[in-house]
From TrEMBL:
This is Glutathione S-transferase family protein. It comes from the Bacteria. PROSITE patterns: GST_NTER. Residues 1-83 form the GST N-terminal domain. InterPro entries: Glutathione-S-Trfase_C_sf, Glutathione_S-Trfase_N, Thioredoxin-like_sf.
Length: 212
């Protein structure tokens, strides 16, 4: 059995869980709730992943792998069923990879914002971080609105998965952003994404944090 270090709070983990559902691999993994905290990394986790980040996949009979995009590749290589997450056609593949990186980049922006907002004392917070993150979110969302038809025209792949999860994460942690305002094309595209069984089965949740 493969063991996935997991949390219902993590958007990177959610990317992987959506992929596992899409590729019909649910029966081949067991999830283990693992603490992930950039300020207090669980020391005993270093032996499995020296970065102590989730998602990390301990493969049955093979070395552990980490990083959500890498685990998406594992899912695609492990199963022929479901959508092809990393298309073979070169141009389509580049589009999928670029969209995948955009969604992941939005998550990284969100993480930077959460760290500044919740992990730094109020008198040490830097207003520039808030400004830059807001500007990046705005630019990414406007780009996606302008590209909503292009997204909808392509078969579902890792790019859609990553962007779709990033938008779900904005709803989960940054509702005040109201990202749908003035972006009807993107909102309609995301309604279709959110209705996928893989997305409905993997909702975010603030569960009690495990102790180290
Ligand atoms: N590039 C990684 C990022 C993973 C990541 O940052 N996960 C967070 C949880 S949402 C984490 O493990 N944070 C703990 C840390 O940074 O030490 C991926 O795509 O999987």
């Amino acid at each position: 059995m493969n063991i996935l270090h997991w949390s219902p709070r993590s958007p990177y983990v959610r990317k992987v869980m959506v992929a596992i559902h899409e590729k019909g691999l649910l029966d081949s993994i067991e999830t283990v709730r693992t603490l992930a905290d950039p300020m207090f990394p669980p020391r005993d986790f270093f032996a499995t992943n020296p970065l102590a980040k989730i998602p990390t996949l301990e493969r049955d009979g093979a070395s552990p792998i980490w990083d959500s995009r890498v685990i998406l590749e594992w899912a695609d290589l492990s199963s022929e069923s479901g959508p092809r997450l990393f298309p073979v056609d070169p141009e389509t593949r580049l589009q999928a990879l670029t969209d995948e990186a955009l969604g992941t980049g939005m998550l990284e922006t969100g993480m930077a914002l959460l760290i500044e907002r919740h992990m730094r004392a109020a008198d040490r917070q830097d207003a520039r971080v808030f400004d830059v993150c807001a500007a990046k979110f705005g630019a990414c969302l406007d780009y996606l609105e302008a590209n909503a038809a292009r997204l909808a025209a392509r078969d579902f792949d890792a790019g859609h998965l990553s962007i779709g999860v990033a938008l779900c994460y904005l709803d989960f942690r940054f509702g005040d952003l109201q990202w749908r305002e003035g972006r009807p094309g993107l909102a309609a595209w995301h309604d279709g994404f959110a209705a996928r069984p893989s997305v409905l089965a993997t909702t975010f949740r603030d569960d009690p944090r495990p102790t180290e």
